[in-house]
């Protein structure tokens, strides 16, 4: 909680007139979702400002743009909690619930928040496919699934863009995170992200 409050008290000039959410950010989307998208943590001046995950920053533009193209999102841009965005068949959450210092979540923060993510996953009974954005989210999902009684195979599944594994009733897909570090450099392109969600749709249609 302290890290959320710190980021909210130090906004950049462009957001000086805005009231920051500055609290743990819950997941967002369709409670009957078949696809769950998992990120790292709320961005200090994105979700931590707006109160909705992946909303109000360029990472969110990339993610919701891809979800829109895949048929999950009602619109391609997510600006605020009141912009009318609706997700159908998809739900978006983060492993860590508060904006971490420097936008870099730590293993300690992950472990403190993991029970909340595991509980959220358990409340989404129709999820068949989990898309992990980045290695941190991939690791968090594996840990959460283990606490929910789904053993992780050995050797442990390794994160990579396009990686795929099955744990219990879930298919887990890996994607590079939609951070500017990846999108600005071309490490992650729109076709690459679209391919991940196309695979998610296909798996959700056929996963037992």
Structural summary, described in words:
With 208 residues, the protein is an alpha/beta fold. The protein has one domain: Uracil-DNA Glycosylase, subunit E, CATH 3.40.470.10. Helices cover 36% and strands 13% of the residues. It contains seven helices and six strands. The chain has helices at residues 2-9, 47-50, 58-69, 107-122, 135-147, 180-183, 190-206, and strands spanning 28-29, 35-39, 90-94, 129-133, 164-167, 170-175. The chain has a six-stranded mixed β-sheet, sandwiched between helices. The protein is globular. The N and C termini lie far apart (39 Å). The model has no long low-confidence stretch (mean pLDDT 90).
Element layout with pairings:
Elements: H1 2-9, E1 28-29, E2 35-39, H2 47-50, H3 58-69, E3 90-94, H4 107-122, E4 129-133, H5 135-147, E5 164-167, E6 170-175, H6 180-183, H7 190-206
Parallel strand pairs: 2-3, 2-4, 4-6
Antiparallel strand pairs: 1-3, 5-6
Helix pairs in contact: 3-7, 4-5
């Amino acid at each position: 909680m302290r890290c959320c409050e710190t980021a909210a008290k130090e906004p950049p000039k462009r957001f000086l007139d805005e009231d920051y959410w500055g609290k743990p950010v819950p997941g967002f989307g369709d409670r009957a979702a078949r696809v769950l998208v998992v990120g790292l943590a709320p961005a200090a001046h994105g979700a931590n400002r707006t109160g909705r995950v992946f909303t109000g920053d360029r990472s969110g533009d990339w993610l919701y743009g891809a979800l829109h193209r895949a048929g999950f999102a009602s619109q391609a841009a997510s600006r605020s909690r009141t912009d009318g965005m609706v997700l159908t068949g998809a739900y978006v959450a983060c492993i860590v619930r508060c904006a971490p210092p420097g936008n870099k979540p730590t293993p300690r923060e992950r472990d403190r928040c993991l029970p909340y993510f595991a509980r959220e996953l358990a409340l989404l009974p129709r999820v068949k496919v989990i898309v992990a954005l980045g290695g941190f989210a991939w690791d968090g999902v594996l840990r959460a699934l283990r606490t929910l009684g789904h053993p992780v195979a050995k050797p442990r599944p390794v994160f990579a863009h396009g990686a795929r594994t099955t744990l219990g009733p879930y298919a887990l897909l890996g994607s590079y995170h939609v951070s500017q570090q990846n999108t600005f450099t071309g490490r992650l392109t729109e076709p690459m992200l679209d391919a991940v969600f196309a695979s998610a749709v296909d798996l959700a249609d056929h996963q037992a």
